[in-house]
Each structure stands twice: as structure tokens, then as C-alpha cells.
Write a structure and sequence with these properties.
single chain, alpha/beta, eight-stranded parallel β-sheet, globular, binds pyridoxal-5'-phosphate
Length: about 220
């Protein structure tokens, strides 16, 4: 069940912190999304390509769709025309594919570099050395149809606040290093996407300016 009261409280808090809310609607029906849409919300996040495509087709066209999950290269083409921001860029090969597809539809597509900050093996993402190598490479210079606008990461799923905080600090540090080394004059490089229902408060304290919140707004998923 959509919790509109929670939504209004959260929006107000995040506004004070200059952080943007992405309402994570994965597995939830269109009518739940519309409840937030009617309350004025426009930014929604999904983690599966097929679901993202279906929802984009059937819901109002002024919704900004965020692809927050792991993206396979062979599926980029299905979302390239409409996706607002791709959070889960975790390899140079994926970036290359996004650039190619974006070029074919004459768009410049915004992306975030996903860093591996959690302890868990299963979480996707770059490490610092890989990103540095990519940023210094020639292939990066040639990608004219993507715009790297920031970083994204997921903390370990744990009750240990100290650990979660440390992982968010690590991501913030990667952001700062990238900004200093590669994006000093780039006004678009400014997004730090970190924080979910269980840890967004810590994320905000550690410098997040974009949170991806699902279950707190939509209720638990099955
Ligand atoms: C599902 C998901 C979220 C939201 O998780 P909640 O705990 O429901 O807030 C955020 N980010 C990513 C990448 C997700 O897959």
C-alpha cells in the first residue's frame, strides 16, 4: 500500500537536505505508482528492464525513469530512448554499449558509475583502479553520447551502522576524488546516489544527494 504520509514527510526532510528522492517501484503495480504521481512525484526507479519498459509504456510520459539495477549490455537498446538516468554502470563495456545506443537515437544519456563498496560479493560495481584506468583511457574521451553525472553504491545489508557509514564514506570519497581529478570544470558531475529505506538517514549524513527508497513508501515487497 502506498504510504503518502510517509512520502510527504520524506520529501520535506530531503528538500531541506537538497537530496532528491527516487521512489523505487519495482514489483509494484501501476496504480501504486499513480498514487505518488498524483501527489506530484515524478522520479521512479526500477531494476528490471522488462518491467521498466512495460511501466514506461503504460504510465504518464512525464515520469522520469531511473534504471537502478544491474543492466545487461544486450538490454540497453530497450530503454535507451526514454531512460532518465542509468545508476548501475559497472564496466567500460557497458558504457561503450550505452554510448553506441544513445548515439543511434541521437541522445546524450546521463549515467552514474556504480562502485562496489559493500562487503558482499554479490553486489556489482567498479573498484577505484578500474575507474581510474577507464577515465584515463582513450575510449572514454571518445564517448560523446554519455554524460557521467556522478556515482552510485549500495552498502552492505547489516545492522552494523558503523560499517554502513564507513562504506558510504568510501563512496563519497570516490566521488570527491573523481571530481578533483577529472570533473573540476564539469557542472554536471554532482550526483551521489546512495541510501535506501533502511539506511538513507546515514547516507544523507555522509553526503548523499539522491536516495532510492522503495519499501518505506510502497510497503514491503514479496
Ligand atoms: C530495491 C532497491 C532499492 C530500494 O530498496 P528499499 O529497501 O525497498 O528501499 C534501492 N536501490 C536499489 C539498487 C534497489 O535494487
Amino acid at each position: 500500500m502506498p504510504n503518502l504520509e510517509e512520502y510527504r514527510n520524506l520529501e520535506e526532510k530531503l528538500k531541506e537536505q537538497n537530496a532528491k528522492l527516487i521512489a523505487v517501484s519495482k514489483t509494484k503495480p501501476n496504480e501504486d505508482i499513480l498514487a505518488f504521481y498524483e501527489a506530484g512525484h515524478r522520479a521512479f526507479g526500477e531494476n528490471r528492464v522488462q518491467e521498466l519498459v512495460d511501466k514506461h509504456e503504460s504510465l504518464p510520459k512525464d515520469i522520469e525513469w531511473h534504471m537502478i539495477g544491474h543492466l545487461q549490455r544486450n538490454k540497453v537498446k530497450y530503454i535507451i530512448e526514454f531512460v532518465h538516468l542509468i545508476h548501475g554502470i559497472d564496466s567500460p563495456r557497458l558504457l561503450k554499449e550505452v554510448n553506441k545506443r544513445a548515439k543511434s537515437v541521437d541522445r546524450v544519456v546521463d549515467v552514474l558509475l556504480q562502485f562496489h563498496i559493500a562487503e558482499e560479493e554479490s553486489k556489482f560495481g567498479f573498484d577505484w583502479a578500474e575507474v581510474e584506468e577507464f577515465m584515463n583511457s582513450e575510449s572514454h574521451q571518445q564517448m560523446e553520447n554519455i554524460r557521467i553525472v556522478g556515482v552510485m553504491g549500495m552498502a552492505t545489508f547489516t545492522d552494523d551502522e558503523t560499517q554502513v557509514r564507513r562504506e558510504f564514506q568510501l563512496l563519497k570519497n570516490f566521488f570527491d576524488q573523481l571530481k578533483i581529478n577529472y570533473f573540476t570544470k564539469d557542472e554536471y558531475f554532482k550526483t551521489i546516489s546512495m541510501g535506501m529505506s533502511g539506511d538513507f538517514k546515514i547516507a544523507i549524513e555522509e553526503g548523499s544527494n539522491m536516495v532510492r527508497v522503495g519499501s518505506l513508501l510502497f510497503g514491503a515487497r514479496n
